[in-house]
Amino acid sequence: MRFDDLAEYPCSITRPLTVLGDRWTLLIVKQAFAGVRRFEDFHQSLGISRSRLTDRLDRLVEQEILSREPYRDGRTRYEYRLTEKGHALYPILIALRDWGDTYMAPDGPPVRYIHRGCGGEVHARLTCEVCGEEATARDVLPEPGPGAVGHAA
Amino acid sequence: MRFDDLAEYPCSITRPLTVLGDRWTLLIVKQAFAGVRRFEDFHQSLGISRSRLTDRLDRLVEQEILSREPYRDGRTRYEYRLTEKGHALYPILIALRDWGDTYMAPDGPPVRYIHRGCGGEVHARLTCEVCGEEATARDVLPEPGPGAVGHAA
DNA sequence: CTCCTGAGTAGCAAAACAGAACGCAGCTCT
DNA sequence: AGAGCTGCGTTCTGTTTTGCTACTCAGGAG
């Protein structure tokens, strides 16, 4: 199977991974959340090669995760900003961060993500939309949904 | 910068991505959550090449996300099971799935993740551990934590 | 014995990648 | 006016990483 064929696979974990599942894409998104908008700044803050950055940005724009917006600093230049769809990736980053803080941060969390105003830390929690309780993997049962075609995944 | 150097970077989003950020790793983990344990089953359900699978599994075992446990079906064979650390990846998968359902599932969610017993759907929500409220990216303020070294990321 | 099955290895071609050099348009300095 | 700088790419070259197909190897079944 070609990797790209997975995009057709009826699984909402698989499909995002065909877009986000590579070395750099989520790191670029992370920087975008940190306020980075310009080519040169992505390049320097991540150390990604210029050609790689060019096509990752193009892909993110094509996927409508970033938008390419003109601004002027003399002639026209572009900056890359998160769209609403891009913004919606935040829980994924926070879930990664929770895991990273727990298992890959021997010296404690490098960065705290603080709830503005209240001052508490923000985490990605699995919650049931009906009973509101927190769940773990063991409490969850996968079932075919409306988008299923024959085989559930 | 070599990609591997990122593992040293003091950011708990970056560090997990050095382990999980590639085409296959999270797909393997996803299958593990779905109950897949054996080489051949990973190979067939994902369509990943055998050699790739061999070294992705080795890496996951090395990272203690999967454990390699002997069982017998005649001679000794091994199966790969999620460790506690691997189990803790579930919120990341659910966050990916929430996003996938919203933006990449034109026919509706292929799979529903149901809270056992109560029957509601389970989602990854950003919640503040102090006030308990749900947050979005805009409500969150990054601040240097104990593991920071000079530059926050 | 010989075949079958599960779990890998080996070897090679194709794709993805890093890093440095180059292009180019407008600005700024002289 | 001309020289150099800046931001944003593109191109080129060589290295890594992948995907495929074929092979091995050990135990069990016929």
Please give a structural write-up.
Two copies of one chain form a homodimer. The first copy, chain A, is an alpha+beta fold. Helix content of chain A is 36%, strand content 22%. Chain A has six helices and five strands. In chain A, strands 1-2 form a two-stranded antiparallel sheet. Chain A is globular. At the A-B interface, helix 1, helix 2, helix 6, strand 3 and strand 4 of A face helix 1, helix 2, helix 6, strand 3 and strand 4 of B. Chain B binds a DNA duplex (30 and 30 nucleotides) through residues 1-3, 22-23, 38-40, 43, 48-54, 73-75, 77-78.
Strand order of the largest sheet of chain A: 1-2
Residues in helices of chain A, as a percent range: 25-40%
Mean pLDDT across all amino acids of chain A: 90
Task: Tell me the quaternary state.
Answer: homodimer
Helices of chain A, by number, come to 6
SSE arrangement:
Two copies of one chain form a homodimer.
Chain A lengths: L13 H7 L4 H9 L5 H8 L3 H13 L3 E8 L1 E8 L1 H4 L2 H14 L7 E5 L6 E7 L11 E5 L9
Antiparallel strand pairs in A: 1-2
The structure holds a DNA duplex (30 and 30 nucleotides).
